[in-house]
Amino acid sequence: MPRGRYSLHDPHDHTPLGEEHFHCAPGPSGWRYVSQITTPSGDHAGSVDLALDELGRPIRLELNAASWQVRGAALEGVTWVRTDPTGTHATEGNVRAHAFTGTSPAFLIATARLLRLTPGSPTTRVRLVAFTDPVLAPRTLDQSWALLKSEAHATDSHPLTVDEYQVSALDTGEQHTVHIAGDVVLSAPGIELEGLETPPSTFP
What we know:
Number of helices: 1
Oligomer: single chain
Helix content: under 10%
Number of strands: 15
Distance between the termini: 15 Å
Strand content: over 45%
Order of helices and strands: EEEEEEEEEHEEEEEE
Shape: globular
């Protein structure tokens, strides 16, 4: 079960946004990721709890940020309920999309798991619902993903396969690169892996 810490920063001006302390693991029904998010000063800022089925679909999502909460799952596309800080108002949403996304590295793992790309396979388009900070406002977006290459790197215990993805935002044309090893993001815009206590898990 990998445990570690990501640092989060603004991908454009590199302003520190905080840290995400996580643990994750594959299980008999899929994969689960749980994290706590802190501000640059160390205060609690939110949490992520994401569970995928064996096909990579989100069977449970719970996000918390600035006292807002989102609970969601893959249901007739993706469905979610967003609750305000007072707990008195809840709004439900549903979009014909494939999965969720957001600032957490968990969503990059989830999308890669859902698409199951191989090097040389055609670029794949995916529709996602993003929950944007700080109030977890939902926004539907389209991306294209391509697996550029997979390389094995020697480690003390066993070779570590690193996948390099090119992700494009179809509304702006902006492209960026994501490096993933197993169920850990090594680097991505706004994300740096700062510490890892145990090696990444490999998916069957």
